[in-house]
């Protein structure tokens, strides 16, 4: 059911003696735009919009932009995990407001940080594999993923705010 219809059904449910099933059935058969226009837009019952939610995803944004999106008191979502994802292949976002000499310095620093990230990850995989042998009960694939995740957990500290990421969130339609 679309977010607007669900908000309508729950708002109707709060204002009617009908069961939730009856409210859902009624809303499916009726246009919600008039209800939302009168109660939400004209009378200012903003709580009605809190009843509807929508999933939003932002891909290829900088880590800095992701932080801005996530800086919301009621934020409910997930970002790409730097513990489980290899960020070395995604390049980085160069701020468009940089002048050419500054952009060149930024890109040089970004490339150096990504090279350090790859090197730290590779060395940590070797180190952790030597220090933590695979338990007989663990499948080789699971062991390799576990070691890689621990190595990413160390290497991620050289990732900078220009690294592209993705954010998925669920938010109120208000």
In words, what does this structure look like?
The protein has helices spanning 3-14, 20-29, 33-42, 63-70, 100-131, 140-155; strands at 53-62, 77-79, 164-172. It is of the alpha+beta class and 174 residues long. The longest helix has 32 residues, at 100-131. It is elongated and about 65 Å long. The model has no long low-confidence stretch (mean pLDDT 86).
Percent of residues in helices: 40-55%
Total of DSSP H or I helical runs spanning 4+ residues:
6
Major sheet: order of its strands? Answer: 1-3-2
What's the rounded overall pLDDT mean? 86
Main sheet: strands, sense, barrel: 3 strands, antiparallel
Report how far the terminal alpha carbons are from each other. 17 Å
Strand percent estimate: 5-15%
Q: State Rg.
A: 24 Å
Number of beta strands:
3
Low-pLDDT regions: none
Q: Describe the global form.
A: elongated
Element order: H for helix, E for strand: HHHEHEHHE
Structural class: alpha+beta
Q: How many discrete domains? A: 2
Topology:
Blueprint lengths: L2 H12 L5 H10 L3 H10 L10 E10 H8 L6 E3 L20 H32 L8 H16 L8 E9 L2
Antiparallel strand pairs: 1-3, 2-3
Helix pairs in contact: 1-2, 5-6
Structure at a glance:
The chain has helices spanning 3-14, 20-29, 33-42, 63-70, 100-131, 140-155; strands spanning 53-62, 77-79, 164-172. The protein is of the alpha+beta class. The longest helix is centred in the middle third of the chain and has 32 residues, at 100-131.
């Amino acid at each position: 059911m679309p977010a607007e219809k669900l908000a309508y059904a729950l708002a109707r449910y709060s204002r009617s003696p009908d069961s939730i099933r009856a409210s859902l059935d009624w809303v499916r058969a009726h246009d919600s735009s008039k209800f939302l226009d009168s109660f939400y837009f004209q009378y200012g019952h903003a709580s009605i919009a809190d009843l509807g939610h929508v999933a939003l995803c932002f891909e290829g944004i900088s880590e800095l932009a992701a932080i801005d999106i996530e800086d919301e008191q009621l934020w409910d979502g997930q970002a790409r995990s730097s513990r489980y994802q290899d960020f070395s292949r995604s390049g980085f976002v160069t701020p468009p407001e940089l002048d050419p000499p500054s952009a060149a310095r930024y890109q040089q620093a970004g490339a150096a940080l990504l090279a350090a990230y790859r090197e730290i990850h590779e060395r940590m995989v070797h180190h952790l594999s030597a220090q933590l042998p695979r338990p007989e009960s663990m499948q080789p694939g699971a062991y390799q993923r576990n070691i890689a995740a621990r190595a990413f957990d160390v290497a991620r500290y050289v990732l900078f705010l220009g690294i592209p990421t993705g954010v998925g969130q669920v938010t109120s339609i208000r």
